[in-house]
Amino acid sequence: MNKVDETRFILRSESPVDVPNYSLATLGDEIEATAGEGTRTLVRAPITHFADPTPQLRKIENRIVRYEREADLLRLSLAFTQWLLRASLFSRSTDSGRTANFPK
Description:
By secondary structure, the chain is an all-beta fold. It is built from no helices and 7 strands. It starts with 7 loop residues before the first strand and ends with a strand.
């Protein structure tokens, strides 16, 4: 029967700025660490080098638009993802941020 090497494993990692890629991870020597932290070193050897298939999605920003309804002067807000709305709905405001030009 083959012996399993429990110090090596495939690791998939990603972040808000890095696309998912795979590495061969090897656990190393034990180190001193605070409670809840890793107690061994980790060495990564890249397996894949995937390029970002949709770099334009990294530019997406969430926004909150605040406006006052003219009919009853009620203050409202709208959360949206910026790239989904047409730029023609918005104009620069002289106060804080952007204000919406909603149809009347």
